[in-house]
Structures are given as structure tokens and as C-alpha cells.
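Reopening this ticket.

The earlier resolution said the output was attached, but the attachment link was broken on my side. Pasting everything inline this time so it's all in one place.
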Amino acid sequence: MTDAAHEKSRFTYSLAQILANEAPPPYSLDDFGAFLEFEHTGENLEYYNFVRMYTEEFHRLAEKYQSVARSHHSLKGMMPSRENLAEGGRLHPSEPYPAEAIAAEAGESGGHRAEGFRERLESKRSIRSLICSSAESDAMIRQILEKILTLYLTPGSDKEINLAGNIRKKLMNEITTKKLPHPDAFKTSIEKVCEMWKTQSYPKFMNTADSRAPAEPSAAAAAHPLADEAGHAEKPSSKKPGFFKKLFKK
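Inline output:
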């Protein structure tokens, strides 16, 4: 029997369902977070969520660069892939950073015929818009990365997560030596956090949540595990309002 199947047979909701926020109260992600805070291990869930945010933004930024390349054929081959974005966003040290190259290409003028000028102008405007959007994403992802490094990985920090020295050293090296490390760099640390949850926090949380759950669910809840009182299926919100905003203000 797989770990997931064992979890499902033993408990109402699996750890994966809770982390994906697919479970209703008292098994929701917010409930799990509150339980971890009570156990004084809330930093692990914060770290997990920041890495998830970083992963999403990393792939979104890579896609934006590729969108720019698709919008302007002469820029194809200059945009970084997900792999070389992690290496610094350049294909060769002598090449300009993608945003600089795009701006230079989009700003070229002179020698154009009147025919098709409007189309070219709209294309340039579109490219400039993508540049600004990519720059904003780049700033956000760097802020997330800085939070991960200073809050959860730096030895002695208030929210330092418990990692083996060799894992921490390798991960910190990836972050400090590469422009934007590939999300795979966080794989081992996330696996260690999840292993700790599976063997310690998750079973205790589920036992506590089971004791708080209604003894006899309503007919609506019986019809759908995420149904509200009127019988309409609801999915819990994916994030606690203001959670990350508060962290960024610190």
C-alpha cells in the first residue's frame, strides 16, 4: 500500500489534500497552520508556501520571456529558457540581459515604410508592456527568494527551519551564486519538511481535528464533503487573507 493510500485509509483527508487546501474545517490548511503554530513549528508551513510561490513565479517569468520572443521573431534565441534563466538569464556572458535586448529591439526606428507602420507600432507597445510585466515579476521573485534565504535558511534566524547542515549549505549556495535558482534546488528541503509532517505533525493534527469534527454531518455535507449549509459545493480559499502581505512588511 502506498503512503498516500495508507493515509487515506487511516485518516479522512491526506496530507496532500490538506496542503492543496482541498479539505474543509477542521481539516483545512488554515487549521493545519494554526496547529503547527501551537506546536511552535509554523515556520515549516511558511517555508513550504514561500517555495511554492517562488516555483509558480519562476515558471510564470520564464513563460513571459518566451512570450516576448514569440511576439518578436528577431528576438527568438535570445530569451532564456527555464534552465538558463536559473544560470543568470543569459546564453553567453557577452549577450545583453533579455529585457535590455528587447527594449533596444523595440525602440529601433528609421527606414520603415509607412505601410504596416501601425502594426509595428502596436507590436512595439505590446513588447514594452511585456517588458514592464516581466520586470515586475523579476522584482517579486527576487523578494520571495530573499525572504526564503533570510527568514528560513540563515543559521540563527528567528524562523530557521530544521535542516541537515549539508542540505542547508548546498541550498544556500544555489541561492547566493545563481541569479534565480531552478525550483528543483528546493526539492530535498521540501521533502525533509514533508517527511517530518508525515511522521509527527500530521497524525497528531488529524487526531485533534477528528475530535473537533461534527459527530453526524448534515445531509448536505454527506452529499458533498465540501458543501455549505445550503448544499452548494465550496472550495476553501487557497491562502489566508493577508498572510504573505504581513510577512513582506516585516
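Reporter confirms the inline version is readable. The first helix runs from residue 3 to 10. The two ends are 44 Å apart (CA to CA).
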